[in-house]
Design goal:
About 30% of the residues lie in helices and about 15% in strands. The chain is α+β, with helices and mostly antiparallel strands. A four-stranded antiparallel β-sheet has the order 3-2-5-6. Strands 1-4 form a two-stranded parallel ribbon. A hairpin with a 5-residue loop joins strand 2 and strand 3. The longest helix is centred in the first third of the chain and has 20 residues. The N and C termini lie far apart (about 80 Å). About 15% of the residues are buried.
């Protein structure tokens, strides 16, 4: 019995008009019906499907305490903010919680090492879509890279439930020690 390969990814990319859609629907229905009516062959098992490797940007697997239980999913926090300004407070609190040991405690010194203003695009699931600079501290490229890394490592952010997606702006106040405050939650300057 000859098996036919059907590439659904290619089929889904085709633009279909009304007539083409009806034809495609009838074709797929006939294909499924033909597959369902033929008996499964008996005998030796077919060769296993080739293993697909994960993309290079995937995260390492989470270690499980028991080999029989799958790892628990990390719950995504939810924000009920209705404006980007309200969401900024939720995002700043989230960044502080994820970087508690890196937050500058108390009032910042009068002269800061770097000040940067960036926008963060967050999708409906809390994933960071884009980080863009409105005012980058170009004299300290290591701070630019560290702020972007800190933002991406803090994902997922609180999911903007009422807005669907959000672009918020915050100012990073960076001390020479490598600790920071966000303007939204700053304790001020001396």
């Amino acid at each position: 019995m000859k098996r036919h390969k059907f590439n659904t990814q290619q089929a889904l990319r085709l633009p279909l008009s009304g007539t083409s859609l009806a034809f495609a629907t009838a074709f797929i229905a006939a294909l499924i019906a033909g597959c369902a009516s033929s008996p499964m062959p008996t005998g030796p098992d077919p060769a296993p499907a080739p293993q697909v490797t994960a993309p290079p940007y995937s995260l390492p697997p989470i270690a499980s305490t028991s080999p029989t239980k799958p790892p628990a999913a990390v719950p995504v926090p939810v924000s009920n903010a209705t404006t980007p300004r309200d969401y900024r407070r939720d995002a700043a609190g989230h960044l502080y919680a994820r970087n508690a040991d890196r937050i500058f405690k108390g009032k910042l010194p009068p002269l800061l090492y770097a000040v940067g203003v960036c926008q963060v695009d967050v999708d409906a699931r809390g994933s960071v879509v884009r980080v863009s600079w409105m005012r980058a501290p170009n004299h300290a490229p290591e701070v630019i890279a560290e702020i972007e890394r800190t933002i991406r490592m803090a994902a997922p952010f609180p999911a903007p439930a009422r807005m669907g997606r959000v672009t918020y702006t915050d100012t990073w106040l960076w001390d020479a020690s490598g600790r920071f405050q966000l303007d939204t939650l700053t304790e001020g300057q001396l």
